[in-house]
Amino acid sequence: MKRHLISAADLTRDDALLVLDTAEELAQVADRSIKKLPTLRGRTVVNLFFEDSTRTRISFEAAAKRLSADVINFSVKGSSVSKGESLKDTALTLEAMGADGVVIRHSASGAPHRLANWVRGSVINAGDGTHEHPTQALLDAFTMRRRLGDLAGRKVTIVGDVLHSRVARSNVLLLHTLGADVTLVAPPTLLPVAVDTWPCSVSYDLDAVLPKSDVVMMLRVQRERMNAAYFPTVREYSRRYGLDADRVARLADHAIVMHPGPMNRGVEIAAEVADSPRSTIVEQVANGVSARMAVLYLLLGGSEPAIGKEVSH
User: Fold this and answer.
1) 3-state DSSP assignment of residue 152
2) Binding residue per annotation — 131?
3) Cα(145)–Cα(78) distance, rounded to whole angstroms?
4) CA pair distance 30, 19, nearest whole angstrom
5) Is residue 194 part of a domain?
């Protein structure tokens, strides 16, 4: 039976720990002179990107290739989709190619779930609308664990444009599963309506939360999704919710600073903070390959998938 990774909520605590432990083992391979493993030889992974994302696409491509899978990159610009072909027709094309795994990024929330009903392969959500981005949460948790050890009881603060952030939602769900305490910090206008149903707490005061935080994750201000209604000016936003050297000085010595990228330096994070030893931003990119290798390996590597959720047809 095929299983999929569409939401961070698809992972039990045991699933999540299995991914992180597997990623740790696979990270050792990255340090070898020959970085390839034969695990997915003969399997086909299709990268189906309806939205631009250089880092996520390259990360999945590197992960699949290091596991010796055949990789087909299906870029939507210039494809039949831009001529009006539907997601379902695209799915039937993928079926004809015999895709074992489909990595999909789509601007519509819920597209990966629909795709999972139409293909026989395992579907991995690489970001759907403002909904979720589960492998980003996994690589973030992997990065936190490498720096801080066990995440149970750790205090993680996620700051900024939560409303438009699929990364925030996936991180809240996964970190809760792993036993961390998550606090969202944002102006009220940048919080989702249903945030009170999420397993986290909310604060509007960054300075009050910082001294208690083990991890501070800054989210990109998504100006392309914004109009002036969300906050008065970028400068005012930065003054209240940006992470600069003065604010970093309030953190505990062991605390780390994260950012899923791409960054607006000088808006949500100061350049000197992004480039400081506390920052894990460069590590997150490298760890992304290990985490995605682990997901591909556990979904496609054995005779049965080891993680994920079945989608009822």
Assistant:
1) coil
2) no
3) 41
4) 16
5) yes
Domain that residue 27 falls in: 8-133+285-300
The three-point CA angle 62-147-166 to 5° equals 55
Count of domains forming the chain: 2
- Ligand-binding annotation for 36, yes or no, is no
Q: Is 56 annotated as a binding residue?
A: yes
Place of tokens 């990774």: 5
Does the annotation flag 57 for ligand binding? no
Per-residue pLDDT of the chain (313 residues; tens, 9 = 90+): 789 999 999 999 999 999 999 999 999 887 788 889 999 999 999 999 988 888 899 999 999 999 999 999 887 765 555 555 688 888 888 888 889 999 999 989 999 999 999 999 999 999 999 899 999 999 999 999 999 999 999 999 999 999 989 999 999 999 999 999 999 999 999 999 999 999 999 999 999 999 999 999 999 987 665 555 777 788 888 999 999 999 999 999 999 999 998 899 999 999 999 999 999 999 999 999 999 999 999 999 987 888 888 876 5
Q: Which amino acid is at 265?
A: R
pTM above 0.90, yes or no: yes
Q: Report helix angle 134-148 to 54-66, nearest 10.
A: 70
- Residue 261, annotated ligand binder? yes
Do 166 and 123 share a structural domain?
no
311 in a domain, yes or no? Answer: no
Evaluate the CA torsion angle 83, 86, 89, 90 in order and state its sign: positive
Which two tokens mark 281? 């931003």
127 is in an annotated binding site: no
